[in-house]
From TrEMBL:
Taxonomic placement: Eukaryota, Viridiplantae, Streptophyta, Embryophyta, Tracheophyta
Keywords: Amino-acid transport, Membrane, Transmembrane, Transmembrane helix, Transport
Descriptive protein name: Amino acid transporter transmembrane domain-containing protein
Entry keyword Transport: yes
GO CC annotation, single: membrane
GO molecular function per UniProt: amino acid transmembrane transporter activity
Amino acid sequence: MWNTIGKSLWLKSNCLSHQNQVASDSVHRGNLALQQLSCNACLEENKACKCDQSFESCKRVSGVDEHHSEGNNSFTHSVINMTGMLIGLGQLSTPYALETGGWSSAFLMIGLGVICAYCSHILGKCLDKNPKSRSYTDIGQQAFGTKGKLIAATLIYMEIFMALVSYTISLHDNLNTVFSGTQFKVSWAKLSKSQLLTLMAVLVALPSLWLRDLSSISFLSFGGLLMSLVIFTSVACTGIFGGVKANHTIPALRLHNIPAISGLYIFSYAGHIVFPNLYKAMKDPSKFTKVSIVSFTLATILYATLAFMGAKLFGPQVNPQITLSMPPHLIVTKIALWATVVTPMTKYALEFAPMAIQLEHNLPHSMSSRTKLIIRGTVGSVLLLVILALALSVPYFEYVLSLTGSLVSIGICVIFPCAFYLKICWGQISRPLLLLNFTLIAFGLLLGVVGTISSSKLLIKNLNRAHSG
């Protein structure tokens, strides 16, 4: 919900001030590359850098200058930024996760919030050791060399890709509900109504991938922010004014469902790849730990409130996307559904921007800007169509999101921050902290493995059921 606010405010203190990043969950979250790569593009192409700061500042951000730029974000500003990074796509699924796992699973959600806040803290410690490190991938390189950087970058882009698949599934599901009473068919197309509608929506969003002006793309992120605010407000209004009674009983614990929903919970806290940049943007980086505590507390309170509210309102009938559980006759439901439909369409261009800019850097410098644009747009379009095909083939939002959390996000949020910290700060870590970090790595691996296996089994089971049916 607040992702775009956080990113927008953060970028005002960095090189891409008015070139806002995507409102994403984890989706969000590889967009930190957008900041650095864009400044690199200014340098490599000898173009004027359209930043609020000077050209020399862009050099510092891109790592050309040995000195790092001073941040100017206050404590409050930084809290808004980090909270904005945390609250996103995961908020749709927390009511489902709570009802599926039982109310005691809220302790797992809170515990993961505490763990992820600690891992945010130790990322700051890693940055203290090397002022030249500015990003998550820089920390990976500092800890384990080129292999560490490559693994970190791979996880980042995997998360972006899988989260976009989840967004497209959400687009499909909500379009199907919005047009539930409408007859729509094309005689020559062997697709269902919802599939055709999703294809049309993606084709409408496709031209945005050809935009090269990041300030134009940033306009889309404002739309994403607006839609997120609309969705949250609509769900709250359903409980307050919609005539739906919160009289459902939430089960205490469904232990067999915990592995599957753990991925949903961990995905909700996945924002760590941008935290190093938030750290660098602070006036006083020594307060970064306090910022993490406050931000994760606010995010956890919001998630818990929404989770209990949704589970109490809709009980066992709660949908993996809370918007699909809302009474269809209410005006706020129609508003929320349309907002959920529009949201993914505002995100594609901004989520692809880091990949697109990296692609341009790998092209020969002798190549004309027009040719680069064509290659960039073509590759982005092909990737989006691949994402569309996957989303239509695997239309199970909760299992894909859970798989993303268990397979990728747990590594980004818990396993690798602890591993980076142990490698970089080994000589200064006390025995209790050594034990804690090794325990968290083991816990993360366990949760990731059982969560990946569980969500994969459920996904395969539902796919087989759909094909056999």
